[in-house]
Design a protein that fits this description.
Blueprint lengths: L15 H18 L3 H15 L5
Pfam families: CbtB
Organism: Parasedimentitalea psychrophila
Keywords: Membrane, Transmembrane, Transmembrane helix
Length: 56
Amino acid sequence: MTTKTLNTTATGLGFLPAVFAVVLGLGIMTLTGHVQASALHDAAHDVRHASGFPCH
């Protein structure tokens, strides 16, 4: 029996993390651009309390 080993490299997938980061960043900027400032403050405030981080 003969075993054949194939050497493969992932050269074509190096751009996927960068594309994901760009899409995620644009999505966050778009969402936060359409939300009122008080809603963003309240969301950050609630996350701080939920994680046990004091904010007052």
